[in-house]
Design brief:
Blueprint: E1 16-23, H1 32-41, E2 46-52, H2 57-63, E3 69-73, H3 78-90, E4 99-104, E5 107-108, H4 115-122, E6 128-134, E7 151-152, E8 156-160, H5 161-164, H6 167-174, H7 182-199, E9 204-208, H8 210-213, H9 218-221, H10 223-228, E10 234-235, H11 243-248, H12 253-262, H13 267-277, H14 280-286, E11 290-293, E12 308-313, H15 320-327, E13 335-340, H16 343-356, E14 363-367, H17 374-382, H18 384-387, E15 394-399, H19 408-423, H20 426-438, E16 442-446, H21 465-475, E17 494-496, H22 502-505, H23 525-530, H24 533-539, E18 543-549, H25 550-568, H26 575-584, H27 593-604, H28 612-617, H29 621-630, H30 636-640
Parallel strand pairs: 1-2, 1-4, 2-3, 6-9, 11-18, 12-13, 12-15, 13-14, 16-18
Antiparallel strand pairs: 4-8, 5-10, 6-7, 6-8, 15-17, 16-17
Helix pairs in contact: 13-24
Amino acid sequence: MTEAAVPVVFPVGGRRLVVYVVWDRRGGVEDFVPFALAGLREQGSRVLVVVNGSLSEEGRAKLEPVSDEILVRSNAGFDIWAHKEALDHVGESIAEFDEVLLTNDTWFGPVGSFGPVLDRMAGRPVHFWGMTDHVRQEPNPFTGKGVLPYHLQSFWIAVRREMFLSEAWRRYWAELPEMPTYFDAVLKHEAVFTEVFADAGFTHDVAYPAAEIGTKNPSLYRAEALLDAGCPILKRRPFLQWPPYLDRHAVVGRWTLEKAAELGYPMELFWQHAARTIPPKDLNTDAAALEVLPDADVSYDPAHPLRTVVLAHIFYVEMTDEMLDRADTLPGGYDLVVTTPDPDRAEGVREAIRRRGHARGEVEVRVLESNDGRDQSAFLIACRDVLLSGRYDLFVKIHSKKTPQDGFNIGRHFKEQQFLNLLDGPGYTANLVALFQREPGLGLVFPPMIHIGYPTLGRGWSVNKEGAQALCDELGIRVPLDDVSPLAPFGSMYIGRPEALRILLEHDWTFADFGGAEAYRDGGLAHILERLPVYAAGELGYHVRTVATAEYMALSHTTMDFLLDELSATTPGYAYEQIELIRKAGFVGTGSARDFARMYMRVNFPGTGARLRSVMASPSIVGKVARAVRRPRTALRRVLGR
């Protein structure tokens, strides 16, 4: 027996209550939120914003023009309990509305306008509807057993009055269980909401069905197709999802972003939010934010030059000409500030500059009071006044690099990897500078992670992560640190906007902070700071790009391809499955056969060290590893892909 009334369409001139939930780790409001709310307010009679956690005065000032009421609550129960508290807050006055829209800040939009989809769904005689849905799955990917029911995705649920005035609706929210984890929020609400009300006799529909898009979860796997179909929403998930999982499903975020830009979404809102909230290496990969630039100028606008200063730290005086040849590839003029450790080197540099003549701007050579910290201290201390002067739109940070301790080949490659990918030639460098002309929110560009000649892959943090986190805490940088390796300008040469590094530049560093020559090593301040520019820029909303020449990508990709092929041959399954298997084992060994055997035993035979010899002797060990890979207990966010 059902209590559901006959479903009706949304009436012409009907009243819609919009409940929008916001959470921000800083207590602020990202700029994409008021843009979304402005679009929703055009369609809503009343807009109630619920803030989980704290709300700064600046954040409130952003929300007030695009909302009718702001409700601040503790950050408990995720957006689900925020919706419950909002409904309790509205109380009996909910009867004034014909439709209630429950949504949150997990999407970018409107891409275009909300009008067409709301008008289309207004004519559907249903009790509730969603923007997107998720197909039924068996077994449930969260639990490995049972069924994940078909459901409307909870980031956008619109409910008509016949349902929200029912006893079933009142009972559902009154009995809503606690949700201490994201896992609970999905299994105890999102995955069951549709089924609960369908079983009670309420009818539902979806604006963009997964069955028509052709995948189990369009908002993750085929976001571009949703945009093509007219969906005004782009979920955040495809750009913060674990990259190996997206690789498994061939999700190419760059194409989705290009589509959103083509349809008119202001992409600076996306990049600003993403830079502040997503681990940078994840974002760089998911959005494919590597630019392979041509060597002929195809994009620089000489009518809008950027005021540029080259900051060159020169220890090896004999490299002065080579470095200035690189700097001279910059379009237009530039000022030059050279730092060097002692007067003799300074005179050598000055002589080289006199010999060349520098007709492209002002020149200054500065002698450092100390070389402790090398190029890091030269940049942050000796050039601080230059960078904070407001005179420049762009800086170029380079230094004389030989790396003699690693041998000729490795040192040569590292130097060329830096110089060629930043300042390869006039055409290439003009295209690089043009990136800053086109993207006001672009903070830094630098070469991809060095890997030829160095074991940086998988070890980019080395022993520096703990110190990096401590320094971020001290400086107020809340961008999430990447897991395995940072997105960082290894080699410490990069081009950027001074404003993007204001957090680092305004700190009162001293040469004593860097210690003596013995402190220039992993774990020391200089090596920690080498890994922090992206996170410092991201905190201020500046995004970054890696850049490379086509020639370097030919070198890098072929080597990377072969290394990954060889490494992948050691473990069956897709890359994400291989990674999960090894991580599940807690494998942190040095790579010997004995280490792998110990790892295997921890995975398959915990607490049974005596069985090691017999298992290793078994001809079926490969099969056992393969079966283990096929059934990894993967982390929630990596399995379901939400």
